[in-house]
Each structure stands twice: as C-alpha cells, then as structure tokens.
Design goal:
The protein is an alpha+beta fold. It has helices at 56-65, 71-80, 98-123, 127-154, and strands at residues 3-12, 15-24, 35-40, 52-54, 68-69.
Amino acid sequence: MALSIRLARGGAKKRPVYRIVVADSRQPRDGRYIEKLGTYNPLLPKDSAERVKVDTDRAAHWLKVGAQPSDRVARFLDAAGLMKRTPKHNPKKAEPGEKAKERAEERAAKLAEANAAANAPAEAPAAEDVAAEAPADAAPAEAVAAETEAEPQAE
C-alpha cells in the first residue's frame, strides 16, 4: 500500500478549502483517507496563520513511515521545517514554442517592411516637390474667394 500525504478538496463552488490528509494513493482525491493532518485555505492572505495548519508531529510520523507528500504539501512541510524540498528549476518554461517564434519573426519582418515603406516617401520629397505643392494649395483658396465675391452679386 503506497501512502501519500495530499490535499482533499472541500468547501463550496468557487470557495475551496482543503484538508491535508494521509491516504492510500489508489483512493480518489476526495475519497477515504487514513488520517487528517491539517487544513489549507487558499482564499486567506499568504501571511495569515490560519491559511495552513499542519499537525507537525503526526506529519513527521507519516514521513518516517514512508508516506510521499504531493508537490503542494511538500511546500507546506518545507515551510514547517519537516523536510527539505528542492526547488524545481525550468528555465525554458517561459520560452515560447517554435511556431510562436516563427509568427514573431514574420510579424517583425512585416513591421520592418511597413516602417521602410513609411520612411521612404517621407524622405523622398525634395525642395522642388514642396515648391510645386505650394501654388496648388494657393489656387483653390483664390477660387473660393472669387466664388464668395460672385455670390452677393447674384442676389
């Protein structure tokens, strides 16, 4: 019989409360257990003393007998000083996958092309082009002024 120290869920929907229990590893998560060692309420603040309660004497007994704690319970027991948990280190966890990297490269290439296209026309107009545009802007203004003068005469 393989013993495990694990969490058994209780509480209402969206309001979990867990019991820290010693159970046969073949039993369901919330099923029959051998002994209750404490409680865990994840809704309380992390600095609250009521968040995790563990009977350290009984937990030490079950560890000596050979019960294996789950990852979360191992954290609690490490904080209580009953066992030493080696922190897991996975530096590639936050690294995006291959397809995401390809999409990011494609986006960067499209962005670079768009920036190059936007910068090219902005640099192209020379002094001659600017001079040619100025009279074109002035001509419509003169035509509007002429039309407004003609309207009062039409009445």
